[in-house]
Amino acid sequence: MKRDVQLSPTPNADADADFRPRHPTPTPDPDPEDAAGVYPLPRMLSFTEAHAHVIALARVVAPERVAIHDAAGRVLAEDVLTPVDLPDADGSAMDGYAVRTSELTGGGPYMLDVRGESRAGGPVPALAPGAACRIFTGAALPDGADAVVMQEDVTRDGERVTLRTRPAPWAHVRKRGEDMAAGAQALVPGTRLGPSHLALAATCDRAWLEVARRPVVTVLGSGDELRAPGTATRPGTIPDSNSIAVRAMARAAGATVRVMPPVADDRAETERAFDEALRATDLLVTIGGVSVGDHDLVRPALEAIGCTIELYKVAMKPGKPLTVGRRGAALVLGLPGNPASAMITFALFGVPLLRALQGDLHPLPSPLAARLARPIRHAPGRLAFVRATLAAPGGALVATPLGNQASGASTSMAEADGLVVVPAEGGDLAADATVLVYFARDLGL
Length: 445
Ligand code: AMP
Ligand code: MG
Known about the structure:
The chain is 17% helix and 28% strand. The chain is an alpha/beta fold.
């Protein structure tokens, strides 16, 4: 199945955008942060490589049958064909009068008797010779008629109408099959179903649809400092805000989500919690504990319970310590704990992964071009995602980077309309530079 995994904003935005191994080579990483690791780790990948690698890990879940009215937001898992021509008969696109153009000879105006009526859902009348038939939008074209004159273009006087001009043949007629011929494919598998897709499926007379079942996501925060929002505060504790954001994003991406209570920074407890979380789940999302601090236990705990580390560290900012693991069919996404890092990495990797697990043909939205309102300082090395407000005051999109880009800043995450993509190499961006941006809502943020 063809998948759009082209994530590099432009073909050369990432220096190594065209080099995308399916499996990253486990070469020694010169980064001293990894010196303590006892396992050979995959090297740090560029954002584009990492994305392609993560999407390639997705195995599409099994389909299930749902009622059409429950299918919004789900990903279609079958072909939907129209059983009949659409529309299934010649009909009127306007309220007016159906006529036979061959009878309107010589110069106008033309005066015709009004004989009969055709309305939506009613029987198909025959057009009497030399007459006009009253007709309404959606009604079948009377037998013998070949055009409709809009009622605004006639003068009606009792049972007669006067047409100023002769309509072209098939004017204001919806021809049988002009939208689709019987047997044509209306919807393809991999379509994320929005209201208009559902309407098209309904037009094809479908009462139910085969869609990918909802992937099961388990969210597990880690850290001694975490407590559930609204619970009694103790010194040094903070509310677990990331689980709330990830839950909302995963649900919106079509998943069934369960959130486990945060696990303490304890190796045995972490292993137990991970092991339990990995049962009956398609994707485990851990939050925090993926850096190299003394209390960062996620990677060793995953390895201890039999996970392979598929990816560790991505050349992106924020979100560098992103970790991806796998045990059997279950995937693990280890998000960094800082709120902006957690949300941005989940938006850029978790949401597309959930979409890919459902067979979505377009797991990541396309970026748009925008003009930068202010410069962005950037040290070459990692692809950066800069929170910005987006507006189109003069008709063209303008991105204004927000002041606080700290990875712990929750406020600028809430304020941002989108993310500006700052190419890994290339340094600072000047005001007025053309950049690529992702809309936050397209990313599921
Ligand atoms: P860590 O990645 O565990 O080193 O955490 C980095 C920062 O993110 C620390 O300030 C943590 O307190 C914070 N953090 C970690 N997990 C969460 C969470 N679930 N909600 C809010 N903040 C968190
Ligand atoms: Mg922590």
